[in-house]
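Mods, move this if it's the wrong board.
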Amino acid sequence: VQLQASGGGLVQAGDSLRLSCAASGRTFSRYSTGWFRQAPGKEREFVAAMSRYGGTSYTDSVKGRFTISRVNAKNTVYLQMNSLKPEDTAVYYCAADQREVPGTSQFNYYYWGQGTQVTVSS
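Not the wrong board. Structure tokens:
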């Protein structure tokens, strides 16, 4: 499966953005999906995930602000980001895997999209 992330941009603190990740190639509903981010000088970190059965998980720092969702008919997974903070600035990556629950480790995701830059100014 090929993944294409989009929707990043430059926003102010408190604003919202919605990232999209469009998948092509195979039946998307069979895949669990995740969002990760990497800030300058830092390691890539887990942000949110949705199993192929619809269960979700989030890193603590985004709980209550970010929401992961998907529309299988459109082969697309979304990351709605509200109340953005400067510390959310990073390159955001979408990922997918056929495991039922790949979890929070980036090493459990086989397919990756290119990143999309999110910059939050204070």
